[in-house]
Protein 1
Amino acid sequence: MTDILIYLFFAAMALEFLFALWLNRRAQSVLDAFIANPQLHEAAGRPSDLYFVWDIYRLRYRFARFLKKHPAKPASLACADADYQFVRKLAIVLLRLEIGRGLLIVLFVFAHQWLR
């Protein structure tokens, strides 16, 4: 039984990583706009070009939390409002997936101990 849980966990992680790759590709214009504006870039936690692929897995959630706290696009940000809203919604989804993955790891540890 625990083997199945491990396979499901790794399959979920692979799907989440593919989602992050796709999201990073779609978010490139928004990320570039943040990088071009030094004040917003600093306020948003200095996200890199590969934020959704690399930084979020290094537990740097500041940019995703910045997007969550700011439902309206900042006026000085040079990107389309629709792009900002799309990236904001998907960043919130990815942030929740990260929290869910952490809870899933804890659940699998307890399930492994219980099923032994």
Protein 2
Amino acid sequence: MARLARRLGLGATLAASAIGLASCGGGANPDALTACRGIHRALLAYDQSLHARTRSSRAALRQQATDDAAAVEHDAAMAASADGGYAGLMTLLQQSQELPFADVAPGLRGACNSINAGTNGF
């Protein structure tokens, strides 16, 4: 139980950091937008996993979400390199490889919603 509480606390902290840092970014960074397109795919796979009928389907979709997130880490790193305000996004993507995707999904969703708020979507 204590481990779950720590994990949830870390997830909440990362989510708050990502949203705050992403909102400080100086406009729509093309690399951040590219990362968010990949994150959007990851979140779709994760959301599908929540409704999958079989255990193997759930596991495969969650792995797809993790893989999709890993595929855009470089884009997030480039965005953070250009503007430190995107460091939270990069950190969340790194954490998505170490924590259950469910723990970082809300932070990734919030960060990309914030990044995309001033654009015409993905």
Protein 3
Amino acid sequence: MKFLGRILGFFLNALALLTTQIFIINFLPYPFNQINFIFSVLLAFITAGETKKVFWLALTVSYFLDLFSGSPFGVGIAATLISLFFIKWLQFNIFTNRSIYMVFLSAIIGITLYRFLFIIFLTIDNYFADQAVWYYGQISAETLWEVTLSAAMLLIFYILRYKIFGKNINARTK
């Protein structure tokens, strides 16, 4: 019964992430609808040290996002997982102290890498599908908004966690 409760909780968390992301995209005004809430939350979980569950949650949420998006299937999943694995490696091997600066820098690097990989995978697909050329100026502006606002959101998550749970935020967990 405990196992079923954990599975149900996992899917409710995934549903809550998806619902919040859809709400942000559809109901917030222009610059704020570019916030990548899902990726910010996943980065917050990786920063907190909960890495095993994060990758399964990322896979599940990315799968459902890819089902309902206009991009080719698998592009979002691949970009999300590759960038999360890179940020996990970066935080555990390079940015080891989890200071507020390192969290902000890892958010900027992670979201930029995610969007860069997403655009590269879509460009490769468009090349083989002979589709129209993109307007990279508009894509760059939207990516800049996404990186800035999502990194600020992760910074707010980090500060709130620090204020709520105290100074043990830098402790590593398995």
Protein 4
Amino acid sequence: SSMKFGRQKPSPPTPVIQDPFAVIPERPSDVELRRDSRGAIHLRRCQKVSGITEKIGRWLNYDFARKIALDEFGTLYMELADGAHTLREIADALAAKSSRDRKEVNDGVILFTKKLMLMNMLVLKVPAAVPPKRTPAGKA
């Protein structure tokens, strides 16, 4: 059997995340978290700029940082996006505080996660796949 290069199906991207709510969101170290007088979280991430853009920006006193102010749900989300809680746990906490149904909360959590990732305000850790526990033969 000869290998036929170019006719192989492309392999799926790895790792395959069986459950998107099992991922663990975390704020990258270059994203600052500040609270306003109401306790709401504001995220700020410094953009790396150089050359003429940096010179003009400095001259104009321009702040290249990306910023986002969060509402009470976004604030709760970020408080729990500490590298220890899964998206499911975050969705559970948000669902408990919201009058919306679970599907709406889940959709919102996925959308918000994607938005923060696109802004480089959030990274996701994929937990290692844990094989199901097997009981040794003969033991109940």
